[in-house]
Amino acid sequence: MTSPSIPAEHRADVERLWDYHNMHHEIRPVDVGIGLGSHDLGVAKVATDLYHQRMYPRLVFTGANAPTTIDTFPRGEAVHYREYAIAHGVSADVILIDTEATNTGQNIENTRALLAANNIEARSLVLMSRPYQQRRAYATCKKLWPEVDVICASHPHSLDDYVTSIGDAKKVMDMLVGDTQRIEKYAELGFAIPQHVPDEVRAAYTRLVNAGYTSRLVQ
């Protein structure tokens, strides 16, 4: 079976958005690791890998279900992520889960409350997400939890490897376009801190919207 691929005429624009959403943070030891639920098991993989690298002593997985995840993770995103981590050597004792969050804001708020309820102080954290969610997750966290030191991370896929892992190039492109729109939209709505959008990113986004990659845009 042929692997899905980015159409050649859109590759430069897709690569531009892909790189923009990667915060390019250097990973260092922190108080807590937080894995944001999604359709992407890569979040659980990077969370497990960084735990074994001793980047944090405690780990939180947060996420209920969305229409795009119910078939893949029928027991809930956080539950499946926890099961993956335990199966790959993370002690169950160090993992907390939030099974209620259905958006990034709730991921952050519920995790903060969960840590407080367990008397765990988090002055620094690694926020782990899908590759194209890093910038939005960072901006949301800094809005809702401004005093914490945030590092963003994702499973280290190349763009092509990520598309292959998802199995649907258009889905990835639609998601990239949608998350780019949300950078400014969510800041305007007060959900996140503002982030600079370079002119070349804005131009790439506009070309992809005009090409029809719009299924994940918010109205």
From TrEMBL:
Matching PANTHER family: DUF218 DOMAIN-CONTAINING PROTEIN (PTHR30336:SF20), INNER MEMBRANE PROTEIN, PROBABLE PERMEASE (PTHR30336)
Domain of life: Bacteria
Alphabetized InterPro entries for the sequence: Cell_Envelope_Assoc, DUF218, Rossmann-like_a/b/a_fold
Name this polypeptide is given: YdcF family protein
UniProt source species: Micromonospora zingiberis
Residue span(s) of domain DUF218: 44-152
GO CC, alphabetical: plasma membrane
Any Pfam family the entry gives: DUF218
